[in-house]
Amino acid sequence: MNWSGPVLCAFRIVLVAAFVAAVPLASVPRGEHASRPSRLSPDETGAILAHGPWPQPWVADPSNRASGNPDAIALGRRLFFDAGLSPSGRLSCSSCHRPERGWTDGRATGIGLAPGTRNTLALFDVRLHRRFGWTGSADSLWAQSIRPLIDPREMGSNAAHVQRHVGTHADLARAYQRVFARQAVAVDEEQAMVDTAKALAAYMETIDSARAAFDDLRDALAAGDEGAAARYPPAARRGLLLFIGKGGCNACHAGPAFSDGTLRDVGVRLALPPRPIAALLAGRYARSGPFSDAPAGGDATVALHGRDGHREGPGRLRVPSLRNLARTAPYLHNGRAATLTEAIRRHPGIGGGLAAGEIAELAAFLNTLSE
Fold first, then answer.
1. Where are the domains of the chain?
2. What is the dihedral sign for C-alpha 153, 159, 161, 162?
3. From 102's CA, which of 35, 110, 125, 179 has a CA 20 to 30 Å away?
4. What average pLDDT does range 295-302 have in this prediction?
């Protein structure tokens, strides 16, 4: 057997799970869950370890030549806060994705040039996504960045305006040339817009969630450190066991980012239907399209779209990450839940099956996923 790579990693998890099974997570106080054993089973330990490690290693986007380029990141940061990209001069990316509000806007649904119908998604850890937006309508961060630029309800811009803004402001024009080795005014307007979106994506790839209390628990379990594991709040511990057990939340909110990235049917009717995957992959801004920098046939992420979890449907939404939830209220795709406890109650998959105390404990756990 080849004891390397994924095989060795899986073997280590099994060993750690067996060892930690003998380590008490903490004594369970009397009350609703007093009969719950205080020690983790190997399966529970393995489920917890699967949500790490954190942070995840950096991997450049092969479809974006600007990904990871410091000059592109600097240009993208400036453009992100630049209302000049909108013809009105009033709206920038940061109008809806405000750093002080957890890279959201704090509203139930977004407002650009016109009111929107969806809650504004946070930008934490977007570099780990494989589909973007609530309905997975883009398969790269740079393609997703084009949509709000040209959507008449959002920034209401167009390729000609973006090219003119970037190409005729001397400092932006110089920065653009440093990144793309060409002048913005020397390429066609659509290419200039795509390049601008790739610089924006390069910046947004740097918006990462910091480590949270859960990560300390997870790493303590991985190390077999009983003392460090015992410092995790008792209510959050019980909520974590609900998350990986009775609630079954980790079936969709899986992995280190607490999202498997798929589209799931959550029993809602959407105001706008998802974009069919066939149309997405055939689009000009797809990872397999003419503006992608990925070698032909070399971008493995395209293969993801054939999986069941990536099929579109009238009630399917992309599974969002749960990291930094405490900073991104209100919740759900329509922003109708003002608090985490309300979001859990309203969730069609779990809310009705949990008692009030269990909902509070699950919320306590979710709060430990925030910085």
1. 23-52+210-271+312-367, 70-204
2. positive
3. 179
4. 56
